[in-house]
Amino acid sequence: MALLPSKSPQTIQNINDIISSPHIGYVKDPSNKVEVFVIGTSHVKCSSAVEVTQLITNVHPDGVVLELDPERVLRLTKQYYGFDADGNLHFQKVAASEQTIPISNSSKGGKELLYGSDFVAAVTTCQEMDIPLFLGDEYAKETQQRLMNQLFRVEAYSPIPLVTSLLPDITSKARADIATTTTTSRISLMNTFRMDPKKLTPLAVSSSPPLMLAALALLVQNNEAAASIAYSSSSSGILKEVLNVLETSISIVISFFASCFLFNTVIVERDEILADSTIRARDVLRSLKNETFIRKRWEFSVNSSMNPNEKKTTSFDAKTELPLFTLKTPLIQGKRRNLNLFEPRWLKMIDSIIREDCTSSSSTSPPQFGCVRCTNKFYSAASINGLEGRYADIIFERRGTLASIVELKEGKRPISGDRKIGVTIEGVDEFTIDDESSSISVTNDGYMIAKKWDSNDLSKPIQIDDEYVKVVVVVGLLHGNGVVKLLST
């Protein structure tokens, strides 16, 4: 088990030094014993990547939440390590010493990205410092669906959230009072943009074209109106040009409310998702401190057939070792569940279980493996011996349920034709995994094995940890204050 590193308490002066930066917000909640540092970043090439690394290094948090979903984190890290969609290396990696962005995992190097270096910096820094990573955002398809659902709601076009987000919060308390009374500190967008104008790039790119077109249209209309008035004194000509100017003005208003709609649905509503993810991360980290959860991290190959150094399918001792499979919801005793497995590691796990059962002459029960509820799952791309692999950071419950294999069905995936297995399992006995670091190992195939587990003693007392949980949240600048506000209320 990869335990969380011990933390030395931050002094008040250190906290004030950290949050004095205009791009960092802060929330301290004594009732839930949590401190949250929200760093607003610009995803383009600017100083954000360096600032993310510095914040994580200085705070040394218990966990880091990213404004990413599983698809985006995999795409960004594959680009960083130079792999295309098929896992082929398509560029010569840059040595870590030649990088211009901070690379914590310096032994592996990587590619400097034009977009997303802030997130990659957070990932590599946390990997180097052994800090759990949490994905805090929804999938892009979910955002698109929400846009369609909100299209005809009047409230979705309110300009208030957009206007207030760009104004300084005059009601916020001074940062210097944070040790005594203040628990919240906002991000200053104006000061952030002034210190690093490059951070304005995404906002300028997205908003400038419609504004420039509208202004140009208005200028043209004004010139045409002036020319018409100069050469025609008829009231009908003047009225026509006034109507043209009015038409352009209406288009500007429509563009403004369209921007409000996008801000409310793409930014404000996702602020709620990011805040909820931060609260969930806090609860998981608290349970990890209380030792009711276990954390394990490792790297494994994606396509072992391409790696000549990869060992053959792992064997294990069914009498003393238990392969583990992670589920989103617990497996209930006496209940059946269907699994659709196609990842190479799970196929190899099932093959090993069946082979071990066939070679065991004393086996009288169906082949079994352990199922545990996974409370956090983070996967990113990794480079293993120059080939594409995965970095896994998994947090799961110590208590699980043995699963008996009832039925196996071999098959092929529709498009690729790759092998898949349909597995019907049934919950049997409950078990508890020992919380010692040596109780969990990872096979060469990429799945976990429990070496110390007990199906009888399920009553180990919970160790209550009263220390503050520290969380760093990495989000875009327009999300920062929204997340701070939600977490403070």
How many β-strand stretches? 15
Query: Given the C-alpha coordinates, what overall shape results?
Result: globular
> Average pLDDT across residues?
80
Outline the biggest β-sheet.
9 strands, mixed
Structure annotation, total helices: 11
Low-confidence spans: 1-9, 93-107, 169-182, 306-311
Task: State the oligomer.
Answer: single chain
Share of helical residues = 25-40%
Order of helices and strands: HEEHEHHEHHEHHHEEEHEEEEEEEH
End-to-end CA span: 35 Å
As a percent range, the share of strand residues is 15-25%
Secondary structural class: alpha+beta
Computed CA radius of gyration, to the nearest angstrom = 27 Å
What are the key terms here?
single chain; 489 residues; nine-stranded mixed sheet; six-stranded mixed sheet
Give a quick precis of the structure:
The chain contains 11 helices and 15 strands.
Task: Summarize the structure in words.
The protein has 489 residues and is α+β, with helices and mostly antiparallel strands. Helices cover 38% and strands 24% of the residues. Strands 6, 7, 8, 9, 10, 11, 12, 13 and 14 form a 9-stranded mixed β-sheet that branches. A 6-stranded mixed β-sheet has the order 4-3-15-2-1-5, sandwiched between helices. The longest helix is centred in the middle third of the chain and has 55 residues, at 235-289. Residues 1-9, 93-107, 169-182 and 306-311 have low confidence and may be disordered.
